[in-house]
Design brief:
Layout lengths: L5 H16 L19 H20 L20 H19 L5 H6 L1 H21 L7 H16 L2 H10 L1 H13 L5
Helix pairs in contact: 3-5, 3-7, 3-8
Length: about 190
Amino acid sequence: MLRLGLVPLLALALGASLGAVLPRDAPKQSCGLAKYRFLAPRELKAVRVMKEQFEDIMLLSNRQCTTRLFHRKWSAAELSVPDRVMLVEAELDLTIAMLGLPTTPGFAQTRQRPLAFLSQAREDLRGCVATETPSHQPSGKLRHWLQKLQVAKRTETTGCLEASTILHLFQVLSDLRCAALREQCP
């Protein structure tokens, strides 16, 4: 018969129970943007339909806008991966805010799917920022654009910001795709 002493038996039991409770070297969670590498055709179609409907609304309005927020001399691909994520997060924050504005019932219905999709993308991006680059400082290019965004929010009319954002929504989606592709963005 096998005789174990009380101390070794307790040490063995304690080690086994602590092993189950304490985390082992868990694999680092990857950023959950892979699903945005190739956007689903139904999402792209919903955005296209919304943009076209908005363009029709714009024709009937008398907006005189000079907002050039999305006219940049650089592309997202020229930024570092953490900068791309920060860029897209800022673009999505603005886009979601603009899509959340009061509007006609028909456009409110049309924007529901794109708004849900973009809101999910923003939440996924925020998870990436929190886990991968919580203290990242933006590059000069990005910092300049973020300052330009803040100035536009203070000086441009809401209608012009809304128009600029919706009319450049495919650029935002392209930037999202670039952030999802990480180092492989062309």
